[in-house]
Amino acid sequence: MSWGTELWDQYDNLSFHTQKGIDFLERYGHFIRDRCLIEMEYAGKLRRLVKNYQPKKKEEEEYQYSTCKAFKAMLCEVNDLAGQHEVIAENLQSDVIREINYLVKDIKEERKKLLQDSAKYVAMINNQVASLERSRKNYEKAFKEAERALDNFQRADADLNLSRAEVEKQRMNMAIKNQHCEESKNEYANQLQKTNELQSQHYKALMPEVFRQLQELDEKRIRNVRHFMAHSADVERNVFPIINKCLDGIINAANQVNEKQDTILVIERYKSGFEPPGDFPFDDLSRGGESTPLVLPGSGNTYVSSGVGAHRSESMTVKGTMSAGKLKKRVGLFAIFSSNKLMDVCSSVKNNLSSSG
Amino acid sequence: MSWGTELWDQYDNLSFHTQKGIDFLERYGHFIRDRCLIEMEYAGKLRRLVKNYQPKKKEEEEYQYSTCKAFKAMLCEVNDLAGQHEVIAENLQSDVIREINYLVKDIKEERKKLLQDSAKYVAMINNQVASLERSRKNYEKAFKEAERALDNFQRADADLNLSRAEVEKQRMNMAIKNQHCEESKNEYANQLQKTNELQSQHYKALMPEVFRQLQELDEKRIRNVRHFMAHSADVERNVFPIINKCLDGIINAANQVNEKQDTILVIERYKSGFEPPGDFPFDDLSRGGESTPLVLPGSGNTYVSSGVGAHRSESMTVKGTMSAGKLKKRVGLFAIFSSNKLMDVCSSVKNNLSSSG
Fold first, then answer.
1. Could you tell me the keywords of this UniProt record (chains A, B) (predicted)?
2. Which of B222, B286, B336 lies at the smallest CB-CB distance from A67?
3. Which of A221, A332, B193, B345 has minimal Cβ neighbours within 10 Å of its Cβ?
4. Along the 357 residues of chain A, how does pLDDT read in single tens digits?
5. Residues of chain A found within 8 Å of residue B120, distances taken between Cβ atoms
6. Which pLDDT value is given to residue B341?
7. Residue A335: its H or E element
8. From B274, B280, B308, residue closest to A9, measured CB to CB
9. CB distance B222–A193 less than 8 Å?
10. Contact B86, B43 (CB under 8 A)
């Protein structure tokens, strides 16, 4: 079934239908364009998220721990994931939107050309029919004049009062009019033949060919819609393996998180290397103030020191070996420490002790 | 290696470090929360896109064509795809964000309790050391008084001018002071024993236990970061099969697009069922205006009609059989038609023809 034969009289509907088809294709293109924008926006938001959560310069020290390293690695993967949505948008742009734009332009031009052709054919047949009508009227007029000339001759021939010359004039006139009528009839016949030939060609060849090509154009459009729709799904699916790898990357990053390793790092970072203070010695004044360890029943402690004061000053020396920076940090930490109310109590106890010691 | 033994003197750093750990966990929670928002926004945008491109009521007639049907089916799939991103957001919310919030609350409380315990232990040892210092000073004072009493007694005993009663008084005083010094010494020894016992317990049991529990708490936090990170990737991956099905759905929809079927639908929709006009007949006036087909050499056409005018009126009847609605539509289509300049020429030819016929 072809538009050329079945829809020979549906020029306007075909013009309308093919325009609707182009509108649909453009609308589909706009849909993909809007989808692209959403993918780009999504990717942009993911990238901004990653940027917002990048470790700050001052936090670099923390990024030796496995949790922080994993978080940083995960941010990289989310960034790559964002990139894959940009790939979707770029491929939709190059493989679908651009191709749709080309196709719409082609189809519009082709449709316009075909409609112009068919308008030309309609004008041709209409002109021919007008010529036919003119030649038929000429024939009608010549026929009437020939009839009148015959009538005049017959009347003249019957009128015995008229001269032979007059009768001969009417016969001549009748012959001329008859001749003219014959010529007009032939011209009319010629025009009729031309018109019928052209009309037959118009309805059987020219217009069917235009409509056949319009149908082909519409089928081309529809085939391409199928292609674009399937391809846009493929574009989306094609990034799956890489998105999967990004997710594998996040799982790998997570598996690098090691709580034992991290708490050992804390030891390495903060360990002073000092031993906890030993027992206070017994300050036996009866032996001239010589400090002796307090030997208690069952206690194996043999620590000897030069007295409580000496012990205190030793722990001061310990503090003195710390770097200035470390001391500064400790001050900072004490500040945090002191924000706790209970800690205040503890701290004041400490101060009392050091002032009384 | 344990924080309890290795970091016995790093209370402040451990307080600082565990706070940093909680900050990290909260920050990770905020990251997932922000990611959720992006997923929800993406899903919302896809849903709005689908809504914007839903066929309008007035376009329903077009939706009999396979391209339009496929487009509608594809919109459904994109809507389902949006739903899967909502599933990601919902599962991140319930499985990760909520769990992180619970964990942060637990760890904060546990850490606070441990720091309070350790502050209590520090206060205890400091109080004990202060008591020790007081008892040592009492002992020192009593020792000096005993020394002075001994001195006084010896001086009195050597002075032969003094009465025995006076000497006896000094001996008594010396004995009392000695007794008091012995008592103070014992008290000092007791306090020293208590202090050393408490200090040993403090550094070997109480504080190590607090630090060990802080380490356990930190390890629990780190283990959970691993778990949350891996789980959030799984949440994302879990929707893949359904997203894949959505894409399959789009490909299936595309494959339903059938150009041949659609152009046949156009024929069914617009076909008038009329035959193209036949030849114009020859209006032979010499046979009294009887219309005869123009018999041309080699033409098999035997069409007979009652003249050009009759033929025209027949084609009018043909038009008369069309429904009013269809005629109205055709008027509308002619309006489109006449917007084309070339069509104007063609149309005016047509009008001339019908006025002259």
1. Coiled coil
2. B222
3. A332
4. 789 889 988 999 999 999 999 999 999 999 999 999 999 999 999 999 999 999 887 777 778 899 999 999 999 999 999 999 999 999 999 999 999 999 999 999 999 999 999 999 999 999 999 999 999 999 999 999 999 999 999 999 998 898 889 999 999 999 999 999 999 999 999 999 999 999 999 999 999 999 999 999 999 999 999 999 999 999 999 999 999 999 999 999 999 999 999 999 999 999 998 988 889 998 888 776 666 655 444 433 333 333 333 333 333 333 333 333 333 333 333 333 333 433 443 344 444 444 443
5. 342
6. 39
7. helix A324-338
8. B274
9. no
10. yes
Instruction: Assess if residue B325 is contained within a domain.
Output: no
By C-alpha distance, the chain B residue nearest A50 is B31
Cβ distance B280 to A222 less than 8 Å, yes or no, reads no
Pick from B10, B16, B53: which is nearest to A336 by CB? B16
Contacts of A9 in chain B (CB under 8 A): 272, 274, 276
Q: What is the largest CA-CA distance in chain B?
A: 197
Please report which helix (H) or strand (E) contains residue B292, including its range. strand B290-292
Identify the CA nearest to A102 among candidates A91, A110, A114, A113. A110
Instruction: Specify the residue for token string 């991956």.
Output: B237
CB < 8 Å to B225, chain A: 67, 70-71, 254, 257
Q: B118 is written with which tokens?
A: 């350790």
- Partners of A234 on chain B (C-beta within 8 Å) are 251
- On whether residue A36 sits in a domain, the answer given is yes
CA dist list (Å): A215 to A19, A235, B48, B65, B268: 12, 30, 35, 14, 14
Q: What pLDDT digit, counting tens, does each position of A21-47 carry?
A: 999 999 999 999 999 999 999 999 999
Residue B291 counted as domain residue: no
Would you give the DSSP letter of residue B288?
T
CB < 8 Å to A232, chain B: 250
Q: Are strands B290-292 and B282-284 parallel, antiparallel or unpaired?
A: antiparallel
How many residues would you count in chain A?
357
Q: Which amino acid is at A294?
A: L
Question: What is the tally of structural domains in chain B?
Answer: 1
Tell me the C-alpha distance between B76 and B88, whole Å: 19
Cβ–Cβ gap A35/B78 under 8 Å: yes
Under a CB-based contact definition with an 8 Å cutoff, are residues B144 and B254 in contact? no
Contacts of A186 in chain B (CB under 8 A): none
User: Is A266 within 8 Å of B14 when comparing Cβ atoms?
Assistant: yes
Residues spanned by the domain of A195: 11-266
- Round to whole Å and give the CA distance between B16 and B111: 11
Which 3 state secondary structure label does DSSP give A283?
strand
Q: Inspect the interface and report whether the beta carbons of A229 and B52 lie closer than 8 Å.
A: no
Evaluate whether B159 touches B169 at the Cβ level (below 8 Å).
no
pLDDT tens per residue across span A241-265 = 999 999 999 999 999 999 999 999 9
Q: Which of A20, A219, A274 sits opposite B259 (nearest CB)?
A: A219
Residue A214 lies in a domain: yes
The CA distance from A37 to A110, in Å, is 31
Cα gap B313→B307, rounded to integer Å: 10
Enter the pTM of the model. Answer: 0.77
Per the model's pLDDT, the better-predicted residue between A342 and B198 turns out to be B198
Q: Can you give the CATH number for the domain in which A177 is found?
A: 1.20.1270.60
Q: How far apart are CA A67 and CA A73, in angstroms?
A: 10
The most distant pair of C-alpha atoms in chain A lies apart, rounded to whole Å, by 197
Label each residue of B96-110 as H, E or C.
HHHHHHHHHHHHHHH
Round the CA-based radius of gyration of chain A to a whole number and report it.
Answer: 55
**Residue partners of A129: CB distance under 8 A and separation at least 6:** A195, A199, B280, B353
* Chain A residues touching B272 at Cβ < 8 A: 9-10
Query: Of B189, B218, B279, which is closest to A294 when you measure between CB atoms?
Result: B189
